[in-house]
Each structure stands twice: as C-alpha cells, then as structure tokens.
Amino acid sequence: MSAPGQHSPVVAGTVRRYRVTHTTRYTYDDVVSSSYGRCYLTPRALSDQRVESSQVSVDPEPDDRSTGVDVYGNSDTYFHVRTPHDALTVTAESVVEVDPIDQGLLLSAAALGPWEECRPAGTSAPVVEFAMDLYPAEITDAVREYAAEVFTPGRPLLEAIVDLTNRINTDFTYRSGSTAISTRVATVMARREGVCQDFARVALACLRAVGLAGRYVSGYLATEPPPGRERVVGADASHAWAAVWLPGERWLAFDPTNDKLVDERHVTVAWGRDYDDVPPLRGVIYTESSSSRIEVSVDVAPIDPAASGNPANRASDAH
C-alpha cells in the first residue's frame, strides 16, 4: 500500500455498462395486514451516468404506489400493500452506463489548490447544509484531531482527500456485522472497525470538522471474484461512499472502504447528508408477528466484456 498522499496518478478507465438487480425479501411468522414502504433504489441520471432503464416491482402487488423526487433530487418509490401477506419482496432492476472518472476535475484549480478555498462560506444554502454537523452531533474531539492530521494548512484538496481515503482504509478494519445503522461515528472511531457506511460517515465528519461540505452517497460497486472463481450472481451488496464539494458546483467522490476515488465501477443511486436521508428501503408494517427475516441479494452484472476485469473490491452489507 502506498504511503498517505503518495498514491499513483489515477489512470483513465473506460465506459462501463451494468445491469443492476437489487432484491429485498421480508418473511414474517404471522400475517401482515398492511405494509407501507419507501425506497431509494433508482439510480440517478447524471452527466457521467446514464440510466437506460429502471423499474421497481413489489410482491404482493401494492394497492397504492407512487414515485417522486426528494429535496436532494433523488428518485424515490412509495408503496402500500393491503393484501394480507407473510412475505414481501421488493425488486429493483436497472441498466446503467457509467463514465470513467473526470480527469478535468482532478486537474482543476479547485482540486489542486489549497483545501481552505473549497469551504462553501457565502455560497447557496443547499451547499452550506452539507457542511453542517448532524444532530445528534458527530464532530467530536477525536474527529477533529483525526481531520487535523490530514487537512494541514495550504495542502491541495485532492492530496488531502486521497490521504483521508487512505488513512481510513488503513486505520479502520472492515468487519461485516460489526455495526448497526444506528451506530454513531464516535463509536466507530473508538472501535476502529465497521462497514462502508461507517467509513463514509467518518469521512464526512472529518470534512465538516474543517468546514468543508460533504455528502453521503449510496449506490453499488461492481466487484470481481477471485482469480479462477466464477462470478456468483447476487453476491454483491449495497455500497456507500462520500463526496466533497468544490467551487463551481462540482463534487469529488471517494471510497474509503476501497481506498480509491469513485470511478466507472461505482453506480450512484442517491445522496443526502447521511444514511438516514437515503436508506435503500424503509417501512412500517401492521401485524401480530413477533419476528421477521430479511434477505438481500444484489447483482451488478457487466453487460459487455469491457465491464469485467476490475480488481476485487469490498461492498457493504448495509441494506
């Protein structure tokens, strides 16, 4: 592994095309009379990501459903199932095309200039919102100390972000099941372990601790099996990373879990201030059931040969 801040230059990739299938199945030990759900499972249409098709299906068929766009521009789907059921399945299928990382962004004056110049002071309110701490507060003394080691005076923003990405990847252990959705950043900092959404939230707390604007991004990561092994359908998972704002309304996305800048292997679904703004699926049920089980299957399948051949990466088990 390279020393912090000394990574090799990013090599331009090629356009990738994927078929993404995300299936969530709930089973209950008693009949559910009514289920309400809201999900963020539709990839965003972006300048570097084109959504060729996307649909969300629910079984049993909902009695009521609608789609909309939230305050951050994310597509969401709402549904209400009133048919009595003991299992509920939500499946999202999309075909997306993703461009390589923008070399112009990496070579921009903002990316190569002092990080202090990327603070959003005096800019529009929506951007400033991403620089504010959450409630309850996530910026602790430990976060400030960790961020101060990275964001030294006058350091180029890109260099600092690459260093932060590498430090989190090095200092924290990826351990599936070690945290829950409700786990606080302070706990992750103390334990030095977690999964992708934890590492993204640590990165965001560090950005905000020094006055930078950062957003939480949910999506998928195309993964490759070990050499000699066949690709297992459904073995992928939801993923999460962070992005920092640059003047000119541009964002530089980075993936601490895999120690890399976000590129054509990442499929962006939604973004917000934190995980709570964009959970893949959230809902309420009415039942006498005392227990339930959730099974999640995610498959990010390359549609053409050019989309395979990427090194093994880690995605999260956050559902």
UniProtKB/TrEMBL annotation:
Coiled coil: none
Lineage top rank: taxon: Bacteria
Name of the protein: Transglutaminase-like domain-containing protein
Any Pfam family matching the protein: Transglut_core
Domain (Transglutaminase-like): residue spans on this chain: 188-258
Organism: Gordonia soli NBRC 108243
